[in-house]
Amino acid sequence: MNVLPNRLSGANVKVAMVDTRVDYTHSDLAGNYAGGRDFANSDDDPMDDNGHGTHCAGIVAAMDDGTGLIQVAPKARLYALKVLNAAGSGAYSGIAAALDWCVANRIRVASMSLGGTSESQTLHTACDKAYAAGVLLVAAAGSSGNGKGTGDNVLYPARYDSVIAVAAIDNLDRRGAFPSTGPAVELAMGTGNGMSATTVGSRLDTTATDRGAVGKDTQFGYGMMNAEAATGL
Length: 233
What we know:
Order of helices and strands: HEEHEHEHEEEHH
Structural class: alpha/beta
Strand order of the largest sheet: 2-3-1-4-5-6-7
Radius of gyration: 17 Å
Number of helices: 6
Largest sheet: 7 strands, parallel
Number of strands: 7
Distance between the termini: 20 Å
Oligomer: single chain
CATH topology: Rossmann fold
């Protein structure tokens, strides 16, 4: 068993998956599950009916239980906020309501592997409010690229300044053909329990391993997240 020290395991950090919900009965997640809300169906049962949210939750907080994989924050307190239905569709108003819930419940990190192509003042305001309240917002830059790695096609809410926009890379640290690109891209993903959202975001940016053009660029942002450098190991 690979036991991580509490400061690197996400212990006591409240992480919300703003997605299709989470299968809170899953053996790798049940011990970390702390509650949630279904904003798509207006109830308190955030059981996943799609699978995407559970998949993302596993990447974040699969438990260190001696079996299977250990993920990046195996002791985090995991919250499920359903904003997408069984088909993976939802409304900006639902995401905004989920972010307001994050503020009210003192969530530290909100993960949003979702996005849309149109601007929403309601969503923008909710993101800015959550960020100002200390919630670190992370969202997918999207897969709306043109295959050439050019253009500005980052989705919302990742496009907002209050949100860290994360673009995809492959197992060889290369861009795929269709990840979204643009000035809003901050990191290409490959703890700071006492840090503010602003400090965490800044540290992730400044410690990232540069990729693509030197410095921040529209394809890789500041580069590939370097967890070792960010945590000072």
